[in-house]
Structure formats: C-alpha cells, structure tokens
Design brief:
alpha+beta; 17% helix; 64 residues; 1 helix
C-alpha cells in the first residue's frame, strides 16, 4: 500500500543572513507527524525535532 502525504516545505535565500554560506539556500521540510523537520544547509542534510531546535536556541543565546 502506498501512502501520500502533504507536508510543509520552505526555502530561504541566506544572502541577507550569512554571507559565508556556500549554497546560499536553506531548505526545511516538516515531518508528516509535525514533530520536527529535515533541513539542508550548504549541502549538509540533518533532521531535528522541534525540542532539539529549542535546546540549540537556548544554548546559542545563553549568557553567563
């Protein structure tokens, strides 16, 4: 049985955010279950849950 899903996909031009980025594109595809997303950035692919992204943001903005 083949199942077909509708998912949210987004693309962003990185020129105004990061001049060092090689590909200049960021792609996100939200998981069908809504718990996270697949990301492609500068030719590297990875997957994150929304909780993992929140933890990264906390660490990135942490000040002592």
């Amino acid at each position: 049985m083949i199942k077909t899903y509708q998912v949210q996909a987004r693309e962003l031009d990185l020129d105004k955010y990061c001049y060092l980025s090689e590909d200049k594109q960021l792609y996100l595809v939200e998981w069908q279950n809504g718990e996270g997303f697949d990301c492609e950035l500068d030719g590297q692919r990875f997957a994150l849950t929304w909780g993992q992204l929140e933890a990264i943001n906390i660490l990135a903005h942490y000040k002592e």
